[in-house]
Amino acid sequence: MHRLPVEESSQVGEARRIAASLARDLGFDEERVEQVSIVVTELAANVAKHAGKGELLLRALQDTENCGIETLALDRGPGIANVAQCLRDGFSTVGGQGTGLGSIMRLSSLFDIYSAPGEGTAVLSRIRRQPPPLSAPAGSPDLGVLCLPVATETVCGDAWALHQESERTLIMLADGLGHGQFAAEASGVAAAIFAEHADEGPAALIERMHLAMRGTRGAAVAIAELLWKERVLRYAGVGNISAQIISFETLRGLLSHNGTLGLEARRIQELAYPWPEDGLLVMNTDGLASHWNLEDYPLLRGKHPALFAGVLFRDHSRVRDDCTVLVIREAGRAP
Question: In whole angstroms, what is the distance from residue 77 CA to residue 80 CA?
């Protein structure tokens, strides 16, 4: 993932160059590369003009054969009082042509926006190498994830992984002890075990990871298994990974036991939770402060999980630790 600060107009061109290079590396044709370049330029320019300071997060999407680029533009500027009005071509608050957000929306395979006056704006754009299908297969998830190292490191000590079947989604989040290369090695062991034994359940996987991580720095790990047809979530965790199920009717925290895989894990327990039809699963490492409150973000729950994750990261990430935020829901279940 590329993290690009936007604090002055000169950084807009750099964001465009990085995005175009990433698109070419993913095999985009030149027409699609130009579309990516336009979107990233508009997003960066909007941050510079309207907020004065913010950042762009670029991530390669390789979850399917139809790879893509995800861009999140995050700022803590004045926000937008009327989002619908700003999406209309010809509307501008700074005397420009007013085609920015409208053109971003048209060029994107997926577009979403969240803004609150006085709190800032977050914009999500995904562009796929080929036009995506009109509807997602039954049981497939909408996923948003940010996984970024502390500013002083080039590698992230956190890791995440996803395994998808027709009616089953398995998700892992790992936080290597500390940060840097040794933390990354520990969480990398967890990811390798996950990839090799994804047919097993959460508790069995964590048992394997605990043994495999002997001799590493160790890691906190949590695994969730979503059984869409059965409407059940199975979960096991050891260490300081936070997870909760959010719906209109409930907000339920998921239990992780104390310990560090590879060092000490006195209890590994798998629990089953009912999965509501409008459920949203939020998982994060302790690089995200725990005091965030969904009531502070009206309408955010109905936004795409990637936008949800981006807003939480923008407002609550800790500057002295790696940070991963993962948000998932069943495709097409947004309220």
Answer: 9
